[in-house]
């Protein structure tokens, strides 16, 4: 029997491109094509298995001249298949779009037109990395791979230990890519349930039509196509842990059924009158603001209160201080060894920039940067400029997706932003805030002028010599 080929999703509205790619790539991959975000969503609901790879165009209908639809596609693919490797293939390749796509979780950006053979090699390389990661996930499940010694991580570990053996549900909140799934696994491993199953359901990935049967099971003949009786996740989890990822995506009708299980453990298979009892512990996670979803009528408030008896917050990477180095060192050693390439090293200035960077895409972004750096700088020492080329500095003071652009003519807005910064972060240094703004503007001007010092100086309204000397001092810092 022929081995199953990995599924590659191509999301592009240009038939010439999709036909060519289909022709070349279908020797290696099972190729599925969608022309828009809406078509992708319905295609994903029909998929039995998770796609391994995706090639995403940014400009898609109904607004093909802006990248927004493509950005939506990246988030939807990752919500559906967290281990997917997304390569962006787009003509809208200006720096801001590249950075935004990478921050959202894409692993690479290829500008159109591209060399299809090279593209194929990149996809095959991504498959290798994915293979390594899937093995890593297995290892993590065995050894609890939550890294970090910073205070927020110590506090998180303490909460995990404290709540591990409670029978009540846990709600894990945190930004995308911050490690919620890993935390869910840690809850199971720290508990007495560790010898029982740990099952994970991604609520964003299950079709609303099948969700009830997937969670609660069905009897034979309960609906067309139910040719045999089937146990759902609640039953299969028995006395173990059932992890409901992306709980904010659960359809409203099912929220009522979930509430019932949480209240008294009772549920029924579809088509059955007998009531069953669930012994499983529920751990749920979301990167949405569930309180806002409750206010908007999209999430039941009684379910929210049930779920959030114990709520833990996974800290974003920007709050982890020196853990950023720890995570970089861990991923560098791990991937360099697995991929069989020499690790890279950061010089002192680059290390300082690494520590300063906010990683809006959290650990997922940090890990993808490491993988790209190994590919580009294996065995080399990087300086700050080489490193910063990988960063998304479009929102220097951003806190994830909520950062606002800075308007220097709006004094009140700037004061409010400074106030939020001071409230959020201890030990703010005015000097380093000013320095990081200076650095960000210099870097932006240099990038926009493709490294032309005279043009960058003009853009910043300083003379060339002043810019040069400021660059030297910011680099030293
Ligand atoms: N503290 C950590 N130590 C080691 N690896 C981590 C840590 N946090 C996250 N990771 C790794 O980063 C990647 C992203 O983490 P994970 O999938 O758990 O994030 P998430 O919060 O569930 O994301 P999403 O909201 O998009 O589902 C995973 O490969 C995970 O193993």
TrEMBL record:
<feature type="domain" description="Response regulatory">
    <location>
        <begin position="7"/>
        <end position="127"/>
    </location>
</feature>
<keyword id="KW-0597">Phosphoprotein</keyword>
<dbReference type="InterPro" id="IPR003593">
    <property type="entry name" value="AAA+_ATPase"/>
</dbReference>
<dbReference type="InterPro" id="IPR011006">
    <property type="entry name" value="CheY-like_superfamily"/>
</dbReference>
<feature type="domain" description="Sigma-54 factor interaction">
    <location>
        <begin position="146"/>
        <end position="375"/>
    </location>
</feature>
<keyword id="KW-0804">Transcription</keyword>
<dbReference type="InterPro" id="IPR025944">
    <property type="entry name" value="Sigma_54_int_dom_CS"/>
</dbReference>
<dbReference type="GO" id="GO:0005524">
    <property type="term" value="F:ATP binding"/>
</dbReference>
<feature type="modified residue" description="4-aspartylphosphate">
    <location>
        <position position="57"/>
    </location>
</feature>
<dbReference type="InterPro" id="IPR025662">
    <property type="entry name" value="Sigma_54_int_dom_ATP-bd_1"/>
</dbReference>
<keyword id="KW-0238">DNA-binding</keyword>
<dbReference type="InterPro" id="IPR002078">
    <property type="entry name" value="Sigma_54_int"/>
</dbReference>
<dbReference type="InterPro" id="IPR001789">
    <property type="entry name" value="Sig_transdc_resp-reg_receiver"/>
</dbReference>
<dbReference type="InterPro" id="IPR058245">
    <property type="entry name" value="NreC/VraR/RcsB-like_REC"/>
</dbReference>
<dbReference type="Pfam" id="PF00072">
    <property type="entry name" value="Response_reg"/>
</dbReference>
<dbReference type="Pfam" id="PF02954">
    <property type="entry name" value="HTH_8"/>
</dbReference>
<dbReference type="GO" id="GO:0000160">
    <property type="term" value="P:phosphorelay signal transduction system"/>
</dbReference>
<dbReference type="Pfam" id="PF00158">
    <property type="entry name" value="Sigma54_activat"/>
</dbReference>
<protein>
    <submittedName>
        <fullName>Two component, sigma54 specific, transcriptional regulator, Fis family</fullName>
    </submittedName>
</protein>
<keyword id="KW-0067">ATP-binding</keyword>
<dbReference type="InterPro" id="IPR027417">
    <property type="entry name" value="P-loop_NTPase"/>
</dbReference>
<dbReference type="GO" id="GO:0006355">
    <property type="term" value="P:regulation of DNA-templated transcription"/>
</dbReference>
<dbReference type="InterPro" id="IPR025943">
    <property type="entry name" value="Sigma_54_int_dom_ATP-bd_2"/>
</dbReference>
<dbReference type="InterPro" id="IPR058031">
    <property type="entry name" value="AAA_lid_NorR"/>
</dbReference>
<keyword id="KW-0805">Transcription regulation</keyword>
<dbReference type="InterPro" id="IPR002197">
    <property type="entry name" value="HTH_Fis"/>
</dbReference>
<dbReference type="InterPro" id="IPR009057">
    <property type="entry name" value="Homeodomain-like_sf"/>
</dbReference>
<keyword id="KW-0547">Nucleotide-binding</keyword>
<dbReference type="Pfam" id="PF25601">
    <property type="entry name" value="AAA_lid_14"/>
</dbReference>
<dbReference type="GO" id="GO:0043565">
    <property type="term" value="F:sequence-specific DNA binding"/>
</dbReference>
């Amino acid at each position: 029997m022929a081995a199953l080929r990995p599924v590659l999703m191509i999301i592009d509205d240009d038939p010439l491109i999709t036909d060519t790619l289909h022709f070349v790539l279908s020797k290696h991959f099972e190729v599925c094509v969608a022309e828009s975000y809406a078509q992708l969503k319905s295609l994903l609901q029909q998929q039995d298995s998770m796609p391994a790879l995706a090639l995403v165009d940014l400009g898609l209908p109904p607004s093909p001249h802006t990248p927004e639809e493509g950005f939506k596609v990246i988030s939807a693919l990752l919500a559906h298949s967290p281990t997917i490797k997304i390569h962006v293939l787009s003509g809208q390749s200006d720096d801001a779009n590249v950075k935004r796509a990478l921050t959202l979780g894409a692993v690479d950006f290829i500008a159109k037109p591209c060399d299809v053979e090279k593209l194929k090699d990149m996809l095959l390389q991504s498959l290798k990395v994915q293979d390594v990661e899937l093995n890593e996930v297995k290892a993590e499940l065995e050894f609890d791979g939550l890294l970090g010694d910073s205070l927020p991580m110590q506090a998180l570990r303490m909460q995990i230990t404290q709540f591990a053996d409670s029978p009540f549900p846990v709600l894990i909140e945190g930004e995308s890519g911050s490690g919620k799934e890993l935390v869910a696994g840690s809850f199971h491993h720290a508990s007495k349930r560790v010898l029982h199953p740990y099952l994970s359901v991604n609520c964003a990935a299950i079709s609303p039509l099948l969700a009830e049967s997937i969670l609660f099971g069905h009897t034979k003949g309960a609906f067309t196509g139910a040719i045999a009786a089937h146990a759902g996740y609640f039953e299969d989890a028995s006395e173990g842990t059932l992890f409901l990822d992306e709980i904010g995506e659960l359809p409203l009708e099912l929220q009522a059924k979930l509430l019932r299980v949480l209240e008294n453990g009772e549920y029924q298979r579809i088509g059955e009158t007998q009531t069953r009892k669930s012994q499983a512990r529920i751990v749920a996670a979301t990167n949405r603001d569930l309180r806002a979803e409750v206010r908007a009528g999209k999430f039941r408030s009684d379910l929210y209160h049930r779920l959030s008896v114990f709520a833990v917050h996974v800290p974003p990477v920007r709050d982890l201080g020196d853990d950023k180095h720890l995570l970089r060192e861990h991923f560098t050693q791990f991937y360099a060894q697995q991929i069989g390439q020499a690790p890279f090293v950061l010089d002192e200035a680059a290390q300082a920039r690494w520590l300063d960077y906010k990683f809006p895409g959290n650990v997922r972004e940090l890990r993808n940067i490491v993988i790209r750096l190994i590919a580009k700088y294996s065995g080399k020492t990087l300086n700050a400029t080489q490193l910063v080329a990988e960063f998304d500095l479009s929102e220097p003071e951003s806190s994830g997706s909520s950062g606002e652009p800075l308007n220097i003519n709006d004094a009140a807005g700037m004061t409010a932003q400074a106030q939020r910064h001071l409230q959020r972060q201890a030990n703010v240094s005015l000097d380093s805030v000013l320095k990081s703004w200076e650095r960000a503007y210099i870097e932006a001007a240099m990038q926009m002028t493709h490294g032309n010092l005279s043009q960058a100086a003009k853009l910043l309204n300083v003379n060339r010599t002043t810019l040069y000397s400021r660059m030297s001092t910011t680099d030293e810092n």
